[in-house]
Design brief:
It contains 10 helices and 10 strands. It has 282 residues and is α/β, with parallel strands linked by helices. The strands form 2 sheets. Strands 7-6-5-8-9-10 form a 6-stranded parallel β-sheet, sandwiched between helices. It has a 4-stranded parallel β-sheet with strand order 3-2-1-4, with no helix packed on it.
């Protein structure tokens, strides 16, 4: 009986990016077992994502324990493979799992996941203005202006994600769990969000998804490409500067100017969305 243990770590987006790897492991092992320890992932984050990935494993997930010694162990490499194991990003983060652990890459990266929700609300547009509170290098500052471009729009995430959100926006921040968030995103016409965990969730759900990139390296952090998934960025000469050598960049705060985010206006974002929809217009 061949077993493997896959460590779940870091944020929700990183866990979602490991889904294709976990699914591929089932082709090579009789049992694929999930391992989680509190030192690797904030418990609240894990409890949010665990019900949506439980079906991927042949166990109930091993909580707060070291991995057993009776099988192959795949430790997480999502924290800093570019700086330690690989040196630079020459392929996306979700591909690095396969490269690092010598598992054949699939032809199609299957990121589909399960969610169970009684929420039936439908909105034209759903936005996510967040990312970790201190990651200003990922937080686009013009969500309030973009919201005023739409009548039927909702915002998801935590209460501190998004400033000066207009009153007409349906506000789910801090009021619903991740499965209800997935349900709302899955039924909207357009999802728009910063690069981060909720946007990776939206990418996995398969709808029309627009992710705003500032300092983030899209080669590193872009989800598996599919139809309807779009990256929005100014593409300045200094972009991207995340994990890039010889650039004065703090991966959390970015540079002092953050021109890549500050100068990307709501009108620019809307123009990109309108342009991308042209082939679908009748």
């Amino acid at each position: 009986m061949k077993k493997c243990y896959v460590q779940l770590t870091s944020g929700i987006g990183n866990v979602i990016q490991t889904i294709p790897f976990i699914k591929e492991c089932h082709k090579h092992f009789d049992e694929v077992i999930g391992v989680w320890t509190q030192g690797n992932m904030i418990p609240a984050y894990f409890m949010e994502i665990a019900p949506m990935i439980h079906h991927l494993f042949t166990n109930s997930l091993i909580l707060n324990t070291n991995f057993p010694k009776d099988g192959k162990y795949f430790s997480s490499i999502v924290e800093d493979p570019a700086r330690s194991l690989f040196g630079e990003w020459d392929e996306p983060e979700h591909a690095k799992w396969f490269t690092a652990h010598d598992i054949p890459k699939p032809v199609v990266y299957d990121t589909s996941l399960n969610f169970l929700s009684s929420n039936s609300e439908v909105h034209q547009v759903v936005i996510w203005a967040g990312c970790k509170p201190n990651w200003t290098s990922k937080r686009w500052p013009h969500w309030d202006k973009l919201c005023n471009k739409f009548e039927d729009i909702a915002i998801v995430g935590y209460p501190d994600e998004g400033d000066n959100i207009p009153d007409h926006v349906v506000d789910y921040r801090g009021k619903i769990n991740l499965q209800d968030t997935a349900s709302i995103i899955s039924r909207c016409q357009v999802y728009i969000g910063n690069e981060g965990g909720t946007s990776h969730l939206a990418a996995a759900l398969g709808g029309r998804t627009y992710i705003i990139y500032g300092a983030t390296d899209p080669l590193k952090n872009h989800p598996p490409q599919r139809e309807g998934l779009h990256r929005i960025a100014l593409n300045l000469p200094c972009q991207p500067c995340q994990w890039t050598h010889n650039k004065h960049f703090n991966p959390i705060k970015g540079c002092d100017e953050l021109s890549c985010l500050n100068y990307l206006t709501a009108d620019m974002v809307l123009a990109y969305i309108d342009k991308s929809l042209e082939p679908y217009a009748h």
